[in-house]
Backbone:
């Protein structure tokens, strides 16, 4: 078998047997199931009761006597506040409110309840609002106008393409969620996978295995085999997550319902996601190899590698700004900058249509960076892998690379 | 075909010349000693031979050709800075590293079991490397070095960290390698081991060759003009002997330039002296080493 393939196979098997890898691959499904469980429990607690709630009221203005049934809430009139209070103490009613004589000019309604609460429940507020507005308007305007006053509009946005046709992707919150989750997973996966390369090479250097390995294989075979082996394990991680997401969404929509069932993952997003994972991983991995080459210990290498892995996570620090101005020239530049491109492009894809030229330039820059990174890492490995002492400074590295 | 041919090799690091115009060759079926003080350039020379670092000038051929991927499979190398995957099992480590030398898994497993058995380590084959003692780890590294049946074996300080039992075990295996027609290069500070094992040597100091050639010829060259004598009776005056130096258990007789040891022996015999030991004084390799290195420094 080809030696690069042997290293690839060894690294792949070695990585997928790591405890950290197994924990990470299971983390998404387990956390999601936990989240769904918690949501189910809390939504079960927060679910509005189906039995009819009776709310008392005292009308000191006069004329508020119709529309006393609002959904599950029935409004019962009392002559005086004292009578309403007595009914509340006797638990005949859950709460009551008083419409004072000057309500029309002040708009103030006093609500009395025995429950401690932060804000009045939405259902109660809506019931009282509708009761008041319906009684105020009845007889003065047509019934359908009363309905419009209660629920003025339902804004439906339709996104058109540049040629005026209805776009296949209509955006919105649902489109934001998957790229956000995917971007986060991508950042985590890039960071973890490249840290495996760092750890692997660092350990080989620390355990004095390098010279033994290099007496059998070339530096290039070593780096390529290692990077691809660990990368395949990382890709398997992403694939497991991508397969898990639709299953989890099905589970979530059947148990939670609502907008989650409307989430769709566009095919081009998946293709770009996998492409950016592969490119991002290769770039981070070859740079990790270079960092491992110049570092004396794994710990030192991890400290150095944090400098560029921060770029993978950085787009999340500016998430709200990216959401507000997804096409700002700053984000365009960072979508081309190879370290931040994978995660940033994923996030922007969920918020806006990223032009094809930006994707093409970003991918081309990443490919060039990977090739350059690989050549640099191989040279660094050859120059520094047998140096076990103090880490060289930047000036020494440049001098040594120049002198070959 | 020569196992190794190093020709006018030069290597500098920053301002320091580590190897300076060094040339030597190693034949098949010999154990060749590469000796020298710390920082003499031994490991740098070996790394250039293994193509781990490139020489500034000069050339190296290994097994008759420039080092290639195919040649690497015919070489066994035990570096001075060596280790193994701590978390991997013994057998797994050996089989993986053997596979990188072109040995298929089945053959590697079979040979590994055989070598583990030979070195008395078969019981440890399923242990993790980190569970082994340093000496046991050294034996596993040696097994990794020879498992692919290399034609040339390069060993940099192979006895470091080994107890006398394991040292003897390795020495026996080195001799076996030579008897199988393989070339062995032994780089060590332990002059007694070199003296015992090596056919030829290269002594380097400050990156330059100091001594090179057949070990017995070198020792002959450094033979002093004296005799070590253990006797019973009265020694008296001996013709051709300029001085007598008493040592514990023997006396050293210093000869003048014209008298041979045979003449001295004949004279002593004619005197009827009881002679328990009569030995032409030959310096140990260690003494030659100290003399040469001291001279240069």
Residues:
């Amino acid at each position: 078998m080809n030696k690069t393939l042997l290293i690839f196979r060894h690294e792949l098997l070695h990585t997928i047997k790591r405890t950290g890898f197994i924990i990470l691959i299971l983390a998404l499904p387990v956390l999601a199931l936990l989240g769904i469980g918690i949501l189910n429990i809390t939504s079960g607690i927060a679910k509005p009761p189906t039995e009819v709630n009776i709310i008392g009221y005292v009308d000191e203005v006069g004329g508020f006597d119709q529309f006393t049934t609002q959904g599950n809430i029935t409004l019962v009139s009392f002559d005086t506040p004292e009578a309403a209070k007595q009914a509340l103490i006797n638990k005949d009613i859950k709460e009551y409110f008083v419409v004072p004589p000057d309500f029309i000019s002040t708009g103030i309604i006093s609500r009395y309840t025995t429950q401690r609460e932060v804000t009045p429940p939405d259902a109660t507020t809506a019931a009282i609002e509708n009761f008041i507005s319906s009684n105020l308007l009845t007889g003065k305007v047509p019934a359908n106008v009363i309905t419009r006053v209660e629920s003025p509009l339902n804004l439906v946005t339709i996104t058109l393409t540049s040629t005026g046709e209805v776009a296949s992707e209509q955006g919105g919150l649902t489109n934001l969620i998957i790229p956000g989750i995917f971007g986060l997973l991508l950042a985590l996966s890039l960071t973890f996978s490249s840290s495996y390369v760092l750890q692997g090479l660092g350990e080989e250097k620390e355990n004095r295995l390098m010279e033994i390995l290099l007496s059998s294989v070339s530096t290039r075979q070593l780096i390529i085999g290692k990077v691809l082996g660990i990368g395949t394990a990382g890709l398997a991680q992403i694939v497991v997550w991508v397969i898990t997401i639709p299953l989890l969404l099905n589970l979530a929509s059947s148990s939670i319902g609502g907008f989650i069932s409307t989430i769709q993952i566009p095919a081009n997003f998946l293709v770009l996601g996998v492409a950016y994972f592969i490119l991002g991983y290769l770039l981070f991995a070859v740079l990790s190899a270079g960092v491992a080459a110049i570092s004396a210990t794994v710990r030192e290498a991890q400290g150095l590698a944090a400098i560029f892995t921060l770029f993978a996570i950085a787009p999340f620090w500016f998430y709200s700004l990216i959401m507000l101005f997804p096409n700002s020239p700053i984000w365009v530049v960072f979508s081309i900058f190879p370290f931040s491109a994978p995660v940033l492009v994923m996030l922007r894809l969920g918020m806006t249509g990223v032009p094809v030229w930006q994707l093409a330039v970003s991918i081309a820059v990443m490919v060039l960076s990977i090739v350059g990174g690989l050549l640099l890492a191989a040279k660094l490995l050859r120059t520094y892998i047998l140096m076990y002492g103090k880490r060289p400074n930047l000036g020494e590295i440049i001098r040594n690379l120049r002198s070959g | 075909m020569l196992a190794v041919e190093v020709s006018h090799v030069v290597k500098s690091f920053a301002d320091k010349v580590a190897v300076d115009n060094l040339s030597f060759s190693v034949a098949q079926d010999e154990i060749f000693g590469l000796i020298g003080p710390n920082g003499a350039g031994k490991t740098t020379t070996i790394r250039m031979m293994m193509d781990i670092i490139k020489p500034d000038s000069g050339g190296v051929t290994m097994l008759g050709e420039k080092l290639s991927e195919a040649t690497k499979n015919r070489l066994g190398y035990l570096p001075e800075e060596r280790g193994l995957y701590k978390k991997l099992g013994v057998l797994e480590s050996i089989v993986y590293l053997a596979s990188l030398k072109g040995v298929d898994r089945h053959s590697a497993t079979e040979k590994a079991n055989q070598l583990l058995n030979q070195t008395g380590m078969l019981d440890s084959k399923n242990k993790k490397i980190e569970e082994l003692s340093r000496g046991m780890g050294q034996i596993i590294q040696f097994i990794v070095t020879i498992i692919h049946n290399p034609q040339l074996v390069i060993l940099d300080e192979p006895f470091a960290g080994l107890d006398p039992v394991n040292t003897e075990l390795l020495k026996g295996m080195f001799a076996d390698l030579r008897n199988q027609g393989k070339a062995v290069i032994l780089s060590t500070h332990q002059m007694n081991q070199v003296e015992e094992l090596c056919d030829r040597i290269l002594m380097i100091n400050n990156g330059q060759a100091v001594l090179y050639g057949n070990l017995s010829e070198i020792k002959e060259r450094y033979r002093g003009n004296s005799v070590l004598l253990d006797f019973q009776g009265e020694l008296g005056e001996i013709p051709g002997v300029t001085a007598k130096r008493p040592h514990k258990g023997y006396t050293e007789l210093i000869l003048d330039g014209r008298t041979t040891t045979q003449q001295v022996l004949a004279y002593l015999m004619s005197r009827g002296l009881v002679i328990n030991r009569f030995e032409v004084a030959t310096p140990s390799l260690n003494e030659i080493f100290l003399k040469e290195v001291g001279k240069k420094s």
Q: What stands out?
A: Strands of chain A lie at 53-59, 69-70, 73-78, 95-99, 110-113.
